[in-house]
Amino acid sequence: MSVGSAEMDGSHGPDAWSAAESAMLGEAVDCAPSVHNTRPWALTIHGRTAQLRERPKLLAQHDPHGRDRRISFGAALANLVLAIRGLG
Predict the structure, then answer these.
(1) Cα 81 from Cα 86, distance rounded (Å)
(2) Are 69 and 59 in contact (CB under 8 A)?
């Protein structure tokens, strides 16, 4: 399973992202393109850490080697990194 995470250092404010900032991160990930619009990932936010986990069981029949799923996951991770940089 692929896992991508990103964290901001604590020098920019409180110990957690605000609700608006968390919503922005979620929207950035949701806007990422995915094969068959399946969004084969799950985003969790804890404090100032965002963790994106791959859900490998999606597309198992249509993508037995996981190539499309990994490409979709990579797009979501790239959007998450850009959104976090935008907050910093």
Answers:
(1) 9
(2) yes
